[in-house]
Design a protein that fits this description.
Blueprint: H1 14-72, H2 78-169, H3 178-197
Helix pairs in contact: 1-2, 2-3
């Protein structure tokens, strides 16, 4: 009994594509986590700068009120007016510094938000590719399983015919006969299927 070569479908080429999509998905996930961490850090800095800006604004308003009150009492309390003016200038400087820090933190927050959005987009694309590769791999495994089951059934039918012929002739079959060939071919088919499903065969 002669046997032909086992036909492996061309769709098995999608197995390394699944591994590549998984690697891209992991890389995009790492980038996404890094961008999220940077975004959280920038958000914390932005909140701290906002708090400082609010405190400085309150101090500036208070100093402004004191400056106006001191101005109205300038004729009677020139020294108090000078002190309030100094406090107003200091509060104004703090307000300007806090405003600058707030602007920087806002810029960093916007940059981190953009990076987070880009990483999220890459993560979504990699996830879609990963899901597509998984579906293709399942389709390939199902197709290979069906072909191997058909070949195994064909081998079993061949072994059954050999037994009937052996009984009809009334004599034993030699050790290297069709039954041993069928068993060897079945073993090789199952071994090949295991290697294909684990991506061990070259070219798959």
């Amino acid at each position: 009994m002669s046997w032909g070569r086992v036909a492996i479908p061309a769709q098995v080429d999608s197995v390394p594509r699944t591994e590549a999509a998984t690697s891209q998905h992991r890389a995009a996930t790492s980038q996404h986590r890094l961008a999220t961490s940077q975004h959280r850090a920038a958000t914390s800095q932005h909140r701290a700068a906002t708090s400082q800006h609010r405190v400085a604004t309150s101090q500036n308003r208070l100093a402004t009120s004191q400056h106006r009150a001191a101005t109205s009492q300038n004729r009677a309390a020139t020294s108090q007016h000078r002190l309030a003016t100094s406090q107003h200038r200091a509060a104004t400087s703090q307000h300007r510094a806090a405003t600058s820090q707030h602007r920087v933190a806002t810029s960093q927050h916007r940059l981190a938000t953009s990076q987070n959005r880009a990483a999220t987009s890459q993560h979504r694309v990699a996830t879609s590719q990963h899901r597509l590769g998984g579906r293709q791999a399942r389709h390939v495994r199902l197709h290979v399983t069906q072909q191997l089951l058909q070949l195994v059934q064909h081998c079993q039918r061949g072994q059954g015919g050999t037994e009937r012929e052996k009984q009809g002739r009334g004599g034993p079959v030699s050790a290297g006969g069709p039954s041993r060939t069928s068993s060897q071919l079945t073993h090789r088919l199952l071994t090949g299927y295991s290697r294909v499903t684990h991506g061990l065969l070259p070219g798959y």
